[in-house]
Sequence to fold (307 residues):
Amino acid sequence: MNLSVQLAPKNQHGLLLANPVMTASGTFGYGTEYSHIFDIQKLGAIVCKATTLEPRDGNPQPRLAETPSGVLNSIGLQNIGVNALIKEKAPLWASWQVPVIANIAGETIDEYANIASKLDGVAGISAVEVNISCPNVKAGGAEFGANPKSAAEVTAAVRAAISMPVLVKLTPNTGDIVKVAIAVAEAGADAISLINTLKGMVIDIAKRRPLLGSITGGLSGPAIKPVALCMVYEVAGAVELPLIGCGGINTASDAIEFIIAGASAIQVGTASFANPRAPLDVLDGIEQFMEKEGIDNLTELIGVARY
Ligand code: SIN
Fold:
């Protein structure tokens, strides 16, 4: 069986994955945290926690709340900064078989381009995923992803700064995600990841106050799966680029739904918190499904719900 997928067919470097199972940024650390739990080299790709120009401590606690069928987070892009990422993490990734994709976030368009150019050509980093979708920061993040014009400006700036593949991660917190996807595609993205978290909140009724330290957060987990699936389906009908489906994928059957809706690859995120082996379980389940259904090549499944 052939599970490989090419996520950057028009890029000079390409981004060939051995299989479609990726980890979602922010749920798998730098990959190293999970390497003692299962053979992470079996995955299609690892997307690391978002990287900013300078290190960040993130938002005030509490930063996590469980909700019905989901999790609300307001981490605030806590990370070690791009220079430490290049010095401390990339050399290890360079010895890995699994491609590592650096998720990047900035407060200004120049900052996105600056981070991307520092990463371009660094051994151990196969692509960048441009995060214009984090709902937990005062500047940048989802602010850029909420409208087609600013989403395109960030994409074009990163595209101009680097030669490696550019993935762009979209926010559902926008009026029309299809318009944002079209704008990002026209601005030079190689692939589109969707969706990041949905903005939400929880109130502590004893304290009569918002539970999260930064009041609002981003909702992920099974609660958002139908929303994410619908957005993948609609974007697949509007852009030619490879799509990476993300949002509430817990099982192989969830992943296959996204592939049938139009995703070439998928990201397992929140599921890893309850079951650290979830990405591998999803991969095993996809293989079993293909075997049972007599599917030789995964590409036979991509987007078939639309035909
Ligand atoms: C966070 O760090 O607040 C979450 C990251 C994201 O939503 O992209």
